[in-house]
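Input C-alpha cells:
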C-alpha cells in the first residue's frame, strides 16, 4: 500500500490565529469564527492538537481555559522561545515524527523560521484555516474507535506519567502498581481499520515499515499461510487501546515475522518483548523454525536492539533487509508486572 502523508498533530499559534487580536495588547480577544468546529472535527478524526505561542504562559492559559479549550491542547508551549524549539518540544513530548506535524501561524516570519529548522513540518498560513479540514493530510482513510478517543488516551498517559514522576521506588514497582493486562488475539474483521492505521502511523517501533491496506490485512486474517495478531493494553487507569500488530508468514517448517510493531505510547511500559516472546513460545510449541525480517532506518533502531536482546541472530543481508533467526532457547517468562492473556 502506498503511504500518503498524514498529519498526527496540528500546532496552533494563538494571536491572530486561534483568536482575533493580540493578547498582550488587549485582554478582550475573541475566538476566530468557526475555529471550535474545526478543532472538534480534527479531534474526532484522531488528530492531536497543541499550541506554540509567544505569550505569557499564565495569561494565555487563563484565556484558553476561559474559552473551554484547555483539554484540547497536549503539551502546550507558551513562552518567548523560537517557535521551532516549541515545535521540537511538542514532538518529543508526544513522541511522534516531526514530519507528522502541521503548524498554523499568521506570521510569515514564524512559519519560515520553523521551516528553516524543520522543512518536514507542514506550515499553514492562518488565512487558509477555512481550507484546513479539506486537506488530504488531515483526512485519515478510516476513523477508528482508537482514533476517536486518541486525545483521551494521551491525557491518560500524561496523568500516568505525572504519577510515575512522583512515585518513589524501583521502576518495576511502579509498573506493578498499574495492574497492566496485555491481551494478544488473532485479528478480527472489526480490528482491521485500526490495524491498517497502526501500519501507517507507527514508525519508531516498527521492524520493517511495511504498510498494509485493509484489504491486504483481511486477506492475511483469513489466509491459512499467515497469522495476524493484534495486541491491546489496559491498566487501572483505563485502556491504551490496540497498540501492537504482528504478521507472520507460515510455511510447514518455518515461521517468518514479516511485521512487528508497537505503538510509541507504550514504549515506557516495559511490554515491548511480550509479543516477541509469545511468538517464540508458539513457534516452539508448533515445532517450527522462527525467522524475522528487519528493515533498519534512522527511526527504528530500538526494534533492531529488541530483536538482538531477544536472541535473534543475523543470518542474511539483502540491501536494507536483514534476516534474523531465533533458536527458541532461553525464552524468558513474561514480566511479573503485566498479566498476559492469549486469546484463540
Amino acid at each position: 500500500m502506498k503511504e500518503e502523508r498524514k498529519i498526527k498533530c496540528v500546532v496552533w499559534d494563538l494571536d491572530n490565529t486561534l483568536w482575533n487580536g493580540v493578547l498582550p495588547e488587549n485582554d478582550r480577544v475573541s475566538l476566530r469564527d468557526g475555529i471550535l468546529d474545526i478543532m472538534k472535527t480534527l479531534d474526532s478524526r484522531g488528530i492531536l492538537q497543541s499550541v506554540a505561542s509567544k505569550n505569557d504562559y499564565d495569561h494565555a492559559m487563563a484565556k484558553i481555559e476561559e474559552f473551554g479549550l484547555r483539554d484540547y491542547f497536549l503539551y502546550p508551549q507558551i513562552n518567548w522561545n523560537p517557535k521551532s524549539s516549541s515545535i521540537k518540544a511538542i514532538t518529543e513530548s508526544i513522541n511522534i515524527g516531526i514530519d507528522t506535524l502541521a503548524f498554523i501561524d499568521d506570521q510569515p516570519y514564524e512559519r519560515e523560521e520553523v521551516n528553516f529548522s524543520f522543512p518536514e513540518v507542514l506550515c499553514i498560513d492562518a488565512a487558509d484555516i477555512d481550507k484546513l479540514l479539506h486537506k488530504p493530510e488531515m483526512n485519515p482513510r478510516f476513523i477508528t474507535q482508537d482514533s476517536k478517543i486518541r486525545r483521551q488516551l494521551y491525557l491518560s498517559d500524561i496523568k500516568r506519567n505525572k504519577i510515575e514522576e512522583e512515585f518513589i521506588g524501583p521502576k518495576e514497582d511502579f509498573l506493578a502498581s498499574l495492574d497492566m493486562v496485555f491481551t494478544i488475539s488473532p485479528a478480527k474483521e472489526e480490528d482491521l481499520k485500526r490495524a491498517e492505521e497502526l501500519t501507517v502511523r507507527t514508525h519508531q517501533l516498527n521492524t520493517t515499515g511495511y504498510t498494509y491496506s485493509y484489504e491486504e490485512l483481511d486477506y492475511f486474517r483469513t489466509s491459512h499461510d499467515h497469522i495476524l495478531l493484534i495486541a491491546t493494553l489496559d491498566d487501572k487507569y483505563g485502556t491504551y487501546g490496540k497498540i501492537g500488530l504482528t504478521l507472520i508468514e507460515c510455511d510447514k517448517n518455518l515461521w517468518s515475522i514479516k511485521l512487528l510493531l508497537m505503538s510509541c505510547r507504550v514504549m515506557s511500559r516495559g511490554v515491548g518483548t511480550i509479543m516477541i516472546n509469545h511468538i517464540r513460545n508458539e513457534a516452539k510449541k508448533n515445532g517450527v523454525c522462527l525467522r524475522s525480517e528487519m528493515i533498519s532506518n534512522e527511526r527504528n533502531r530500538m526494534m533492531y536492539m529488541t530483536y538482538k536482546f531477544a536472541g535473534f541472530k543475523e543470518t542474511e543481508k539483502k540491501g536494507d533487509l536483514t534476516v534474523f533467526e531465533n533458536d527458541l532457547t532461553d525464552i524468558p517468562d513474561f514480566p511479573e508486572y503485566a498479566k498476559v492473556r492469549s486469546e484463540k
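The chain has a mean pLDDT of 92. DSSP finds eleven helices and 15 strands in the chain.
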